[in-house]
Design goal:
The chain has 313 residues and is α/β, with parallel strands linked by helices. The protein folds into 3 domains: 83 residues, Ubiquitin-like (UB roll); 91 residues, Translation factors (Elongation Factor Tu (Ef-tu), domain 3); 120 residues, Rossmann fold (3-Layer(aba) Sandwich), CATH 3.40.50.80. The protein binds flavin-adenine dinucleotide and FE2/S2 (inorganic) cluster (FES). Flavin-adenine dinucleotide binds next to strand 12, strand 13 and helix 4.
Length: 313
């Protein structure tokens, strides 16, 4: 049976055990969120031995060369020695610049990292609270323009990170973990094509960054933003979006409540086969958007989606 070493701890585990489960089974607290290779909350570093990795492409080559792996995607097939991600040693320190409620449920967090962080619109980061809770959140700020890193946290339901975030105050510290890009981005080649940005809840955060990136790059095609919220009071960026629309004639904003969604989606018609769609939010909403776009005739290759997978139980 393979031996799993973590610091001074030695665990004997069943062959082909899931690495994250084996660590938890041995009482070693490795954080996780999605269990799907998406959030990167479960990073561990292999210092000796190699696990069987189901998603090697989920990490970039330089991270892999340093030995980093996603514990949720690995199986222990041989003796293995690992180090867990230590936010104090491996994370980037950041100070909370401001925490502002944009609606009853959405908290805007602005962070000032101790060192400049290079990122692009549409990426997300793992945030670590002081108490060691790690969760992925999307960047809503515009790289190179906003001096802070901005996040929009859905605090509607109680959760380990949301509960900690409600208590945050300016000056508090957080740590930044892995920076990652999903499907959402803006490509300079898209400049003349119609762009649809469909967001549910705080799925608006990365799309707001992509929208501002598109406008910064003088996007000339029509841009349509649809924001779905539980009710009208939760269109938390309504004013900011209206201000952008007032100064950009190509931008159209539609704010929909859950009750209005079915009728609005039924009306959705493609005006151009060149349309590109970027979707983000809860998996159910993203699936609903994607299905409707497919029925409207938009090829899957023109749809880019990131889902906010909730914490796996
Ligand atoms: C790539 C990515 C980017 C993301 N970006 C954002 C973003 O920008 N903004 C954002 O708001 N979210 C985002 N999310 C989602 C966010 O990371 C998750 O919702 C995260 O789980 C919230 O952490 P939490 O600690 O507050 O809640 P968790 O403790 O993780 O709980 C998650 C949910 O499960 C419920 N829950 C808790 N315990 C139980 C239980 N025992 N049984 C059943 N349900 C329970 C909670 O009420 C909560 O709603 C993103 C997710 C991913 C994967
Ligand atoms: S990538 Fe492993 S828990 Fe999300």
């Amino acid at each position: 049976m393979p031996e799993l070493r973590v610091g001074e701890r030695r665990l004997v585990v069943e062959p082909a055990s899931n690495l994250l489960d084996a660590l938890h089974g041995g009482g070693i607290a490795v954080p996780y969120s999605c269990r799907a290779g998406s959030c990167h909350a479960c990073l561990v570093r292999c210092v000796r031995g190699e696990p069987l990795d189901a998603k090697p492409d989920a990490l970039d080559e330089s991270r892999r060369e340093q030995g980093w792996r996603l514990a949720c995607q690995c199986r222990v097939v041989d003796d293995l020695q690992i180090e867990v991600f230590d936010p104090l040693r491996d994370g980037l320190p950041a100070r909370i610049d401001s925490c502002t409620w944009l609606s009853a449920q959405v908290l805007r967090l602005r962070l000032l990292p101790q060192q400049a962080l290079r990122y692009r619109a549409g990426q997300h980061l793992v945030l670590w609270s002081e108490s060691g809770v790690a969760r992925p959140y999307s960047l809503a700020s515009l790289p190179g323009e906003d001096p802070w890193l901005e996040f929009h946290l859905d605090c509607r339901l109680s959760g380990a990170f949301s509960d900690a975030a409600r208590q945050f105050k300016p000056g508090d510290s957080v740590r930044l973990g892995e920076l990652r890009g999903g499907a959402l981005h803006y490509d300079a080649d898209w400049q003349t094509r119609p762009l649809w940005l469909l967001a549910a809840g705080t799925g608006l955060a990365p799309l707001y960054a992509v929208l501002r990136e598109a406008l910064r790059q003088d996007h000339r095609g029509a841009i349509r933003v649809i924001h779905l919220a539980h009710d009208r009071t939760e269109h938390y960026l309504a004013d900011a979006l209206a201000a952008l629309a007032a100064s950009h004639a190509q931008l159209q904003i539609e704010l929909l409540s859950a009750a209005e969604l079915p009728a609005a989606l039924a009306e959705l018609r493609l005006v151009s086969r060149q349309t590109l769609a970027l979707l983000c939010g809860h998996p159910d909403s993203v699936e609903t958007f994607a299905r409707r776009l497919y029925l409207a005739g938009l090829p899957r290759s023109q749809v880019f989606a990131d889902v906010f997978l909730p914490h796996a139980r």
